[in-house]
Amino acid sequence: MTDKSVPEKLMAAVAAVDRAAEAVLSMRSLDERTLWQKLFPKRSERRQRHRVRRFIGTLDGVRAAEPHLLPPEALSQIRKRVEAVLGRLEDDIQARRPGPREGAMMATIIYKTTERFEGILTAVERGKHPQPKPGHLAPGDLQR
User: Fold this and answer.
1) For 66, left (φ over 0), alpha (ψ -120 to 50), or beta?
2) CB neighbourhood size of 74 (10 A)
3) Which of 4, 82, 83, 102 could form a disulfide with 98 if both were Cys (CB 3.0 to 4.6 A apart)?
C-alpha cells in the first residue's frame, strides 16, 4: 500500500485505524476477565470505552484525510477492522446483558462507528463520480 498517489496523511490515518482496532480487539472479553475485574469493573470498562472512542476518532481521521483517494485494499482493510470491532461490541452486549441506560450507550457507540464508516464509503463514492459545483455548470448542462 505504498502507492505514490495516496497522500501520506491518509495512509497514516489508515494505519491509526488498524492500531486502534487492534487495541479494542485485544481487550479481554467479559468471560475472560479476572475475578477482581468482574467485582470492580469500572476501571476496565472505562479503558475499553476509551479505546472504542479512539477507534471512532481514527475513522474520523480517515474521513478528514481525502478518503476518495483510498486504494481498494485499504478500504477493504478498514471494512474488516470495523466489522471486527462491531462484532466484538455486539458480543460484549450479549455477554453483559446491559440495562436500558448502558444498552442505549452501547447502541449509540455501534451507531456512531457504523455512521463513520458509511461516511468514508460516501466520500469514496463521491470521489469516483464528482458532482460539478452549482456555479460551474455550462449553459446547457442544467440538472433537473
Assistant:
1) left
2) 22
3) 102
CA angle 57, 59, 60 (to 5 degrees): 65
Decide if 17 contacts 59 (C-beta within 8 A). yes
End-to-end CA distance of the chain: 40
pTM over 0.85: no
Q: How high is the mean pLDDT of the chain? A: 81
- Residue 97 is which amino acid? R
Q: What is the mean pLDDT of residues 59-77?
A: 92
Phi and psi of 4, rounded to 5°? -70, -20
Which single residue is written with the C-alpha cell 453483559?
Answer: 96
Of 6, 3, 13, nearest to 56 by C-alpha is 13
pLDDT, greater one: 117 or 134: 117
User: Cβ of 113: how many Cβ atoms within 10 Å?
Assistant: 19
Would you list the DSSP string of 26-43? TSPPGGGS-HHHHHS-HH
Report how far residue 113's alpha carbon sits from residue 136's, in angstroms, rounded to the nearest whole number.
Answer: 35
Q: Where do the domains of the chain lie?
A: 8-131
